[in-house]
Amino acid sequence: MRFDWTQPGTWEQAVGPATGMYLMAPHEQPIEPAFVSVAVSKGIRRIVLLSSQGIEIMGDERLMAAERLVRGSGVDWTIVRPDWFNQNFDEGFFQPAILAGQVALPVGDTKQAFVDADDIAAVVAVALTKDGHEGQSYDVSGPRALGFGEAVAIIGRAAGRQVRFDGDADAYSASQQALGRPADAIQGELKAYGALRHRGDATPTDTVRAVTGHAPKPFETYATQAAASGAWK
């Protein structure tokens, strides 16, 4: 079965005959409203959307539009809003920076409630397969909030590496310019991250335990497991 976001002719076969759908927006693209309409017309009666915390603060219209779309779909919906993924550090966009020994992000020392992808998946699975989660928007976090400096220090110890964090806006701008990124894109990100920094420290939630019955994975456990898998070698 072939599915392509850009080819509506592939949509019907991909969604039918399922009754539940886990929906994640394509990378840097909006969710096409017609896709949700097709899914509902083919029998989807429950949608679980992966969104993100802080989208209003950061002005993420793509995800705000996705949330509005799902709420107005006419079927049962649940929105899952995780904080920063742990896996951003070993599978995502921070991995090269970890390997290079420096992570730069203009959020200063504000704390984030990093959450493991396994815990996000567990919340999604329950919301998708069990009743009682309809019409809920779940903020999903790890067990405690950490500054990026604390997080990369934990990773450095687990991986046996020297890794430093620079939360200064000028350092971030310089690192992105060195990658050849457009100035307007960098300025937009500085504005969004500045708004997140202004929000202050994140507050951990008990969503993982409340929905799944198990405690969220501590960041130290994640880092130890990722290092053992060779993620930062």
Describe the structure.
The chain has a domain at 84-115 and 143-203 and 218-233: UDP-galactose 4-epimerase, domain 1 (Alpha-Beta Complex). Helices cover 44% and strands 14% of the residues. The longest helix has 17 residues, at 183-199. The relative contact order is 0.15. The protein has helices spanning 11-15, 33-41, 55-58, 61-71, 95-100, 117-129, 148-159, 169-178, 183-199, 207-212, 219-228, and strands spanning 20-24, 46-50, 76-82, 102-104, 111-112, 136-140, 146-147, 164-166. With 233 residues, it is an alpha/beta fold.
In short:
The chain is an alpha/beta fold. It has helices at 11-15, 33-41, 55-58, 61-71, 95-100, 117-129, 148-159, 169-178, 183-199, 207-212, 219-228, and strands spanning 20-24, 46-50, 76-82, 102-104, 111-112, 136-140, 146-147, 164-166. Helix content is 44%, strand content 14%.
Rg, Å, rounded:
19 Å
Shape: globular
Instruction: Label the structural class.
Output: alpha/beta
Which percent bin holds the helix content?
A: 40-55%
Strand content: 5-15%
> Major β-sheet, in short?
4 strands, parallel
Number of beta-strand segments: 8
Write the layout of secondary structure elements.
Layout: H1 11-15, E1 20-24, H2 33-41, E2 46-50, H3 55-58, H4 61-71, E3 76-82, H5 95-100, E4 102-104, E5 111-112, H6 117-129, E6 136-140, E7 146-147, H7 148-159, E8 164-166, H8 169-178, H9 183-199, H10 207-212, H11 219-228
Parallel strand pairs: 1-2, 2-3, 3-6, 4-8
Antiparallel strand pairs: 5-7
Helix pairs in contact: 7-11, 8-9
